[in-house]
Amino acid sequence: MGPTFLITLREGLEAGLILAIILAYLRSTNQRTHFRTVLVAAVAAVAVSLVIGATIFAVAGEFEGRWAEAFEGAAMLVAAGVLSWMMVWMKRQSAGIKRSLERDMAQAIGMGSVFALALIPFSAVLREGLETAVFLFAATRTSTPLESTVGATAGIVVAIGLTWGIYSGGYRVNLRVFFNVTGVFLIVFAAGLLAHGIHELQEAAVLPVFVEHVWNINHILDDGSGVGLWLKALLGYNGNPSLLEVIAYPTYLALASWYFVALRPDAEAVAPAHIAAPAQVRLPRREAEPPIAD
Questions:
Q1: pTM for the whole structure
Q2: Domain boundaries, the chain
C-alpha cells in the first residue's frame, strides 16, 4: 500500500501542479476561454495512460513461468531507471518549470493554435501517467491487489485535493521540501525495485547467480508474509538475497542518494516555495477603434 500511495501521490501532484500553473496563467491573463481545451487535453492524456497501463498488465498476464519472471524483472529494472530519471529531472526543472510553462502557453496563444495549446497539458500529464503505469506495475509485483488498489486510490485522492487547494489559494505547500522528502523515499523504493528485478531475472536464468543466498533469515523475518512482506513492498527487503542483489542494493542507494543531495536545480530561476497565481503578463495592446459617427 505504501509504495503505490507514494507513487500516485507524487506523480498525481506533479501533473496537478502543471495544470494548476497553466490554469492560473490563463486566469491571470484573462484567457479563461482556453480552460476547456486544457481540461479536455488533460482528460485525454489520463485516458491514454489508462489504456497503456491496462495493456502492460494484460501483456504481463500472457506470460508464464520463466518468461513471466523475465518480463517482470525487466519491467522492474525499467521502472527503477525511469524513477531515477524522473527524480533528477524534477529536481533540475523545479526552478524553471513555472516560467517555462508560462512561456510555452504565451507562444501557443500567440500562434492562435488550439492544437499547440492542448499539446502542452496533454504531453505533461501523459508523461506522468505513463510513469505511473510503469511504477504501479512494478509495485504490484510485491504487494496484494487490494493493498495496491487502496494505496493508489488514496494517493490520487490526496493529490487531487492538494492540487485544488494550491490552485484555489487555500494551501501553501513548500514544494521543494515535499519533493525532497518524497525523493528520498522513492530512492529507497527504486533500490528495492532494482534488487527485486535482478532477483526475477536470476530466477529466469537471464542473469548469473554467482552465490544464490548470501544469508537466509526468513525463519526470523519471512519476506512472504506479515511485516516481512510489507518491508519487501516498501523497501525491497529480501530474507535470502543473492550476491548480486546484496551488491546492487547498497551501491545504488549510496550513489543515488549522493547524486540527489549534490544535484542543484538549474540556476536560471529561483525555485518557488509554493505555487501562486503568476504575475500579470503584458498582452499586445489593441489599437483604439475610431469613434462611430452618428
A1: 0.73
A2: 2-262
